[in-house]
């Protein structure tokens, strides 16, 4: 066996040789890769010269930076650097002198503030309870002192109603106006006013979203028609899409404009409900929460038949107007009479000569009292807070009703159960027996495999129900009547005992509900005063709509001192010649404090932007209102004592 040194091969002398190739002499694999990219340029930043400029700011020492520069600079550059360093040193000296001067001045100011601050604070504290700055406010220079009519809203009823459902003029009157709770939409009721007899004219609830992009005053956002005149509208205080309306035929209507079919509920025509035109509506907060956890509200309606009814929405919108849960029967000077004297043998309500025809209403702050104005000029303050039937039924009464109905073969909804819980126990048992008899006469009993018949509010009211048990007459206090028709009343939203009363004789009175005589008679001298409303932002400000089409703004803070109200009229001509007619309704915007809506009888709704002084509240304005009311009350007491002497 021998080895070859050159080829590194082994060969056996006894067998065939074997060649083994070398692995480390093998050519290593390689690859050539090419990419496309922009050329890369490299520059040495240390060789690039720059220019320096001293701007007298707090910067690092320029001289130390200059010393670190490369030695390759020429003599001229070094000379420039030397000059710049000298200038920087001079500048630093000047800055040091200025800083020392400012420090001395700051020390002087600090010493002065320490000497006078304690005295200044003491004087300000002493002046908190004084009257030197009472009523003072800082007025912006951009605030306008002139009112401006922004829009005149109109719509064409001929596009909705047939000619036979419209008056001869072809136009419908605006009867009422209100703002949505967000302040973005104006809602107005339309129909024919001064109707005698049955109403054959259609009505509508018209909505304008005045802040919508592309808004046009003559194009309504939504029109909801009805078979009779809409006499009043009132927007929900929390839900923007919920609108309540009253009709001339006595119906209470509930709309939800967010639905494809806006009409949600409508009250039936019933002998125990409204039998004449609904004249006014009010939303009032209810005790407890609704079924969905939100705040519960009741809708209060008043009619010219002398009934005030309360409709609860605690159990939802559907079915809320099937029947009221409570009510008030208005009367003047009548003694309390029982059901046997008020009802005939047939169960029909006997007309009473003491019934008051209610034309308007307003709840005081906190909903403790209800102020009613009638067509005969009477003013009544009803103490509704003392009525047990108007509040939420007690849980004990509800449980007693459920226990009594446990073996019933019918389904009693929660709304009906609460209605029964408001009755006395003896009356409740008789109503349940009467309802059971009516259900047997009109429906099958049902079994476990079938749906149980439902007891409705209409069936309960159609039974032998003592109406006086649900519609009683509370204690009342009569204020001094007005010579004409009471057209509108408005209780102050910030003062519990103050209210405004408008009348057809042209008077506009400020009343204290604690006294029969009015505190103040403004008398705008512009014909009948059709409507009045308090500002929602300024407790001292209110507006009144007059017969000549004008709207007058009053500020009790300045009017008490002799200043007159500001008149808002159409900018073209006077309202009568412009064809707008009397201002039948006014409403302040709940969010936009300088917006006011005025509904005209002849179908137009004017949107006004108020002057600055009527829209922006003052400091301690509530206290100013209380003081003015107290001063006027003292003057009235002195006049009364003088007359008695």
Q: What would you call the shape?
A: extended
Beta strand %: 25-35%
Helix content: 10-25%
Taking pLDDT < 50 over at least 5 consecutive residues as the criterion, the unreliable ranges are 1-10, 59-73, 136-143, 334-353, 444-450, 573-578
What is the subunit arrangement here? single chain
Spatial strand arrangement across the major sheet: 12-13-14-15-19
Number of β-strand runs: 31
Average pLDDT rating: 78
Rg over CA atoms: 42 Å
Write a brief caption for the model.
This protein is of the alpha+beta class. It contains 12 helices and 31 strands.
What are the SSEs and their pairings?
Blueprint: E1 2-3, E2 10-11, H1 62-67, H2 75-126, E3 148-153, E4 173-179, E5 185-191, E6 203-209, E7 222-226, E8 230-235, E9 242-247, E10 252-256, E11 263-266, E12 278-289, E13 295-303, E14 307-312, E15 326-329, H3 339-342, E16 358-363, E17 370-374, E18 379-382, H4 395-404, H5 414-421, H6 425-442, H7 457-462, H8 467-470, E19 471-472, E20 476-479, E21 486-491, E22 498-503, E23 508-512, E24 520-521, E25 529-534, E26 541-546, E27 551-555, H9 556-559, E28 566-568, H10 575-578, E29 583-588, E30 595-600, E31 605-609, H11 612-615, H12 621-644
Parallel strand pairs: 15-19
Antiparallel strand pairs: 1-2, 3-31, 4-5, 5-6, 6-7, 8-9, 9-10, 10-11, 12-13, 13-14, 14-15, 16-17, 17-18, 18-20, 21-22, 22-23, 23-24, 25-26, 26-27, 27-28, 29-30, 30-31
Helix pairs in contact: 4-5
Description of the molecule:
This protein is an alpha+beta fold and 645 residues long. The chain is built from 12 helices and 31 strands. The chain is extended. The protein starts with a strand and ends with a helix.
């Amino acid at each position: 066996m021998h080895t070859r040194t050159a080829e590194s091969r082994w060969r056996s002398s006894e067998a065939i040789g074997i060649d083994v190739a070398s692995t480390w002499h093998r050519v290593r694999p390689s690859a050539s890769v090419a990419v496309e990219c922009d050329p890369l340029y490299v520059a040495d930043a240390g060789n690039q010269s720059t220019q320096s400029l001293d701007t007298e700011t707090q910067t690092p020492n320029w001289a130390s930076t200059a010393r670190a520069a490369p030695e390759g600079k020429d003599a001229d550059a070094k000379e420039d650097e030397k000059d710049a360093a000298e200038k920087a040193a001079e500048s630093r000296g000047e800055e040091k002198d200025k800083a020392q001067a400012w420090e001395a001045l700051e020390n002087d100011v600090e010493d002065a503030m320490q000497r006078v601050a304690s005295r200044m604070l003491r004087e300000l504290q002493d002046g908190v309870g004084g009257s030197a700055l009472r009523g003072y406010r800082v007025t912006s220079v951009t605030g306008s002192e002139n009112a401006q009519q922004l829009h005149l809203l109109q719509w064409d009823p001929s596009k909705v109603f047939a000619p036979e459902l419209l008056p001869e003029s072809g136009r419908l009157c605006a009867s009422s106006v209100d703002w949505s709770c967000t302040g973005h939409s104006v809602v107005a009721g339309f129909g024919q006013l001064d109707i005698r007899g049955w109403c054959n004219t259609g009505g509508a609830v018209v909505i304008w979203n005045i802040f919508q992009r592309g808004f046009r005053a003559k194009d309504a956002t939504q029109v909801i028609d009805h078979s009779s005149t809409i006499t009043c509208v009132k927007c929900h205080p929390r839900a923007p899409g919920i609108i309540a309306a009253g009709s001339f035929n006595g119906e209470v209507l509930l709309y939800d404009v967010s639905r494809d079919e806006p009409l949600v509920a409508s009250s039936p025509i019933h002998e125990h409900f409204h039998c004449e035109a609904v004249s006014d509506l009010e939303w009032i907060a209810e005790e407890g929460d609704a079924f969905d956890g939100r705040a519960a509200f009741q809708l209060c309606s008043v009619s010219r038949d002398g009934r005030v009814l309360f409709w609860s929405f605690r159990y939802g919108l559907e079915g809320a107007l099937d029947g009221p849960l409570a009510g008030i029967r208005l009367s003047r000077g009548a003694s309390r009479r029982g059901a046997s004297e008020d009802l005939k043998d047939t169960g029909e309500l006997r007309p009473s000569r003491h019934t008051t025809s209610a034309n308007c209403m307003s709840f005081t702050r906190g909903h403790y009292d209800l102020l009613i104005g009638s067509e005969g000029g009477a003013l009544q303050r009803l103490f509704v807070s003392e009525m047990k039937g108007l509040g939420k039924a007690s849980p004990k009464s509800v449980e007693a009703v459920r226990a009594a109905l446990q073996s019933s073969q019918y389904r009693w909804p929660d709304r009906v159960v609460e209605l029964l819980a408001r009755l006395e126990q003896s009356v409740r048992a008789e109503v349940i027996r009467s309802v059971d008899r009516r259900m047997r006469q009109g429906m099958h009993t049902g079994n476990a495999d079938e749906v149980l018949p439902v007891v409705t509010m209409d069936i309960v009211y159609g039974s032998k129900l003592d109406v006086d048990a649900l519609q009683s007459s509370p204690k009342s206090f009569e204020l001094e009547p007005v010579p004409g028709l009471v057209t509108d009343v408005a209780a102050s939203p910030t003062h519990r005992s103050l209210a405004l009363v408008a009348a057809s004789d042209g008077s506009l009175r400020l009343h204290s509900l604690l006294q029969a005589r009015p505190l103040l008679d403004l008398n705008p001298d512009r014909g009948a005063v059709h409507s009045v409303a308090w500002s929602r932002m300024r407790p001292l400000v209110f507006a009144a709509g007059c017969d000549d089409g004008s709207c007058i703004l009053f500020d009790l803070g300045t009017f008490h001192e002799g200043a007159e109200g500001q008149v808002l009229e159409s900018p073209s001509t006077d309202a009568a010649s412009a064809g707008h007619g009397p201002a039948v309704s006014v409403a302040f915007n709940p969010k936009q404090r300088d917006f006011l809506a005025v509904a005209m009888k002849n179908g137009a709704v004017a949107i006004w932007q108020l002057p600055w002084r009527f829209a922006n509240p003052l400091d301690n304005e509530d206290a100013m209102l209380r003081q003015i009311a107290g001063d006027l009350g003292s003057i009235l007491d002195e006049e009364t004592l003088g007359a008695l002497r």
